[in-house]
Design goal:
This protein is mostly beta strands. The protein contains one helix and 34 strands.
Length: 423
């Protein structure tokens, strides 16, 4: 999913409301660059066809005049409730240390949304000592035992990211409940876009640490996930020493998840791109994925609605629908598939990709990627003119990359099936 014009980044408010899937996103409609953030809005019944709706939130209040930053949404008693980060300069002084990030609420009907009169509902008065007023964002709202809860990303004065928990009975008066989690060791500078959920009787946390990579390349912030042990009574969380990457292509960031109508945990994320396409738009969302846990490993497989949509077999990419096509094949050690300049190969027990031929203009971006060691090598590739997603072993590992100037030829000796969307 992309916008026809402007800038897009983080997915926001991904939720099922009155039988339709709503996806909001960070949006700057006035240019192809990041700017004063709005909430763009689309909806879908199947994750294939998306209807663009009017902008849901705009920075039109004193407390959010510098932007309506990321947040989440829930359905409750027929209402669609949005929680977002409202940003302003304290005392009107436009200095970096005067930025204030607070949390606000808007309520709507699936198309029109009204901000609460008592916003901001969580501000510096509720923060614990040492918590940053500048880095305090990305509320995850959910309801539990009759109360509304928010988990919000923050940075402590010692430089470590932390997750703070708040609770409310009515969405208006909130109280601080404690630190949801703070690591013993520093993991990045700031944890953005936290998500917590339970799937397959496991507890999972996903978040995006800034400055996780130290190689000097672009996109040093990455998204990680892990199984955790969380005590809901004491709010204590135990994280393992090791973590997985959400995606091994390093372009995806700031994911959000929700439940689909069948109760599956589904997720999407922002595909970061170095420049606009055709001078019109920049940023995309990735293919919706189902989150599963098998044998202590977190899988991200293609949503079955998407898989079922690719039913028309073709003999070459030139015959594909404008949205792209799917490849299915298996790889032996040493095999290689060149998809219009994007190379997928197997080297030993790893699947590797290389976009060097398509990214020569971007020397500060990574171009070669690889999965961890695998035991199977069944490959499913979704090819869009500006996004390629390589799913290995039904989501055991995924590599997603932004691409430019992708060719329409496939060079390989590997047997494969090519399919596209039925029009």
């Amino acid at each position: 999913m992309k916008v026809p014009m402007g800038w897009m980044n983080d997915p926001n408010g991904f939720s099922l409301y009155e039988g339709e899937y709503h996806l909001f996103f960070q949006y700057h409609p006035y240019s192809r660059e990041w700017g004063s953030m709005h909430w763009g809005h689309v909806k879908s019944q199947d994750f294939i066809r998306w209807e663009h709706l009017p902008v849901a939130l705009a920075p039109d209040q004193v407390y959010d005049k510098e932007g309506c930053f990321s947040g989440t949404a829930i359905e409750d008693n027929g209402k669609h409730i949005l929680a977002y980060t409202s940003v302003y300069y304290e005392d009107g002084i436009e200095e970096p240390d005067k930025i204030r990030q607070t949390q606000s609420i808007a309520i709507g009907d699936g198309e029109n949304y009204t901000k609460q009169e008592n916003n901001q509902v969580i501000d510096k008065k509720l923060l614990p000592e040492g918590a940053s007023l500048v880095d305090f964002r990305d509320p995850k709202i959910f309801k539990s035992h009759g109360s509304y809860n928010m988990i919000v990303a923050n940075r402590d004065r010692d430089g470590r990211g932390q997750l703070l928990k708040f609770e409310s009975a009515d969405l208006k008066k909130w109280q601080y409940m404690g630190v949801f989690y703070k690591p013993e060791k520093k993991l990045g500078r700031m944890w953005e876009c936290p998500d917590y959920f339970e799937v397959d009787n496991r507890q999972v946390v996903i978040f995006s640490p800034m400055q996780l990579f130290k190689d000097g390349k672009a996109e040093d912030a990455q998204t990680v996930c892990m199984q955790v042990k969380f005590d809901k009574e004491t709010c204590a969380m135990e994280l393992p020493e090791e973590y997985q990457f959400l995606d091994y292509g390093t372009d995806l960031y700031a994911p959000q998840s929700t439940l689909d109508e069948s109760g599956r945990r589904i997720l999407t994320a922002w595909l970061r791109m170095p420049e606009p396409v055709d001078g019109k738009w920049q940023g995309m969302m990735c293919i919706p994925r189902v989150v599963e846990v098998k044998e202590n490993h977190i899988y991200f497989r293609v949503h079955p609605n998407v898989q079922a949509a690719y039913t028309k077999e073709i003999s070459a990419p030139s015959e594909a629908d404008e949205s792209g096509y799917r490849l299915r094949f298996s790889l032996e050690d040493g095999d290689k598939v060149d998809v219009g300049g994007y190379v997928i190969s197997r080297k030993g027990d790893k699947i590797c990709t290389d976009r060097s031929c398509l990214f020569g203009k971007y020397p500060n971006h990574r171009v070669k990627f690889e999965t961890p060691e695998m035991k199977g090598f069944e490959i499913e590739v979704y090819v869009n003119p500006n996004q390629i997603s390589v799913f290995v072993n039904d989501g055991e590992a995924v590599i997603t990359n932004a691409v430019y100037d992708l060719g329409k030829e496939i060079e390989t000796d590997v047997k494969m099936r090519i399919e596209t969307l039925e029009k």
